[in-house]
Design goal:
192 residues, alpha+beta, Nucleotide Exchange Factor Grpe, Chain A, domain 2, elongated
């Protein structure tokens, strides 16, 4: 008996579901078809707008990417040219020095006086070329403190001065644009 009651209840519930579904279908049929078409048209327009925006953004991205590549390529060309022609200014400054040396060698009967004058003029030209290209001489004086960043001690010798001070300069040093090119070779005083 209980089973029959349950079965009857299940049948009633199923019938209600079918009735409700039929009512829902009937209600859907009563919705105006133009409203559905309008919603579809609106969605289609929205999709078209979004697709157009995607294409616009893709185009902008590709242009930006190409511009980035062009900038990178131009920068590489500039670096290549800078490396290739970096010494050009120094070479321009050195050409007159070579000209002066060649002219000195062409003199058929040079006097000591004229040779000395020519060498002094050539040295002035060379010094001007060095200065123009920021090639600065390191020439420490006797008694200066040894600076391992600019000087290289070759030997130590007894002297009547403070330890680790310069006694003799064997060879001048040079910096180029505040960077050590060659240290000055010096002898330094031993401790007393």
């Amino acid at each position: 008996m209980q089973e029959q009651e349950k079965q009857a209840e299940t049948t009633n519930t199923a019938e209600q579901i079918v009735t409700n579904a039929s009512a829902a279908d009937a209600a859907a049929d009563t919705v105006a078809p133009p409203a559905i078409e309008s919603a579809e048209a609106s969605l289609i327009d929205k999709v078209a707008q979004l697709e157009a925006k995607v294409l616009e953004l893709q185009d902008a991205f590709m242009r930006a990417k190409a511009e980035g590549e062009n900038i990178r390529r131009r920068a590489q060309d500039d670096i290549s040219k800078a490396h290739k022609f970096a010494i050009e200014g120094f070479a321009e400054a050195m050409v007159p020095v070579k000209d002066s040396l060649e002219m000195a060698l062409k003199v058929e009967t040079p006097s000591i006086e004229s040779l000395k004058e020519g060498v002094e003029m050539t040295l002035r030209q060379l010094s001007a070329a060095f200065e123009k290209n920021r090639l600065i001489e390191i020439s420490p004086q006797k008694g200066d403190k040894l600076d391992p960043m600019k000087h290289q001690a070759i030997s130590m010798e007894p002297a009547d001065q403070e330890a680790n001070t310069i006694v003799t300069v064997l060879q001048k040093g040079y910096t180029i644009a505040d960077r050590l090119l060659r240290p000055a070779l010096v002898t330094v005083a031993q401790g007393k």
